[in-house]
Amino acid sequence: MVDTAVSHALNARVYVALFAIAVFVTGIFLYSDWATQEPILTEDAAYWQRVIEDKGPKAARVRYLSSTEYFSGGRKHVAAHAFSRALYNVYGAAALGYCGSEYVGGCIHEVSAQIFLNSPDPTDFVAECTAKHASEDFIDRACVHGLGHALMWREGYTREGIHRAMQGCDDMGLSALSISCSYGVIMEWYFRYIGGNPDIYPSDAAALALCQEFSGPARDACFFNISTVWITLYDPTRTTSRESVIRVGEACRALTNVERDKHYCVLGAGRLIGLRGQYSRYERLEACDAAFPDERDAATCKSNVEYALSL
Length: 311
Known about the structure:
311 residues, mainly alpha, 16 helices, disordered N terminus
């Protein structure tokens, strides 16, 4: 069980931001292959750039929203990255003003990352991004997550690179918000690098070993994400079957050496179960009971299921 003092020490606002950011980003991982989506993303960005230049940003956005209305959650998020990349190509940093709240921040993720990467001195943007992150409006908080993606791109997809990127989140002085940045780093690592190199996809033990290399917010973010990695290994069909969810629960429960690691793993598993859109609310909550026999772990899992259902 997680010590009560540890639980109380967790910053509630940071947790909510972390979970909300994860909801649609995880959709990419569960319902599409980033390696196959990247060429599509580039091609779609070129198409939307032509539309934006011809029709203007408002008319282009109306067409974009209509064309993606019936996409799955993960595909919508990828589409948001493509559209916002086109916005950035046309308007630069001003593209941030054209990003809407749809698809839980996909536009902000891409534009904020591009601003950070292409700015000679991103100090002012980081300060603005951090200030916005304190807002209750999710679309602003997504900005810090985008910085994590940018740091991983900038540092390069090596073991040394991911450590430098995680350190970069700390060096920006984000304080408690560093976990949101760190989550961007770890998601980018798995989506772009591992997703693009299926032959080196890690075993469950390798994913665990990576998380154990980190400390602080980077470690928390990694263990929050690890359920998504494990579910892909245990359930190649990516249907998030009940059996694979139980296996993830078993893996989380095995993290007995560090209670905080297990706690974040359970949080991530709850997020994962909450995304099981093909199942009813009852079936999702029941999956938490099946995965976590301990009542406190199950309660943590269920709280995340309820949060997913509220979005």
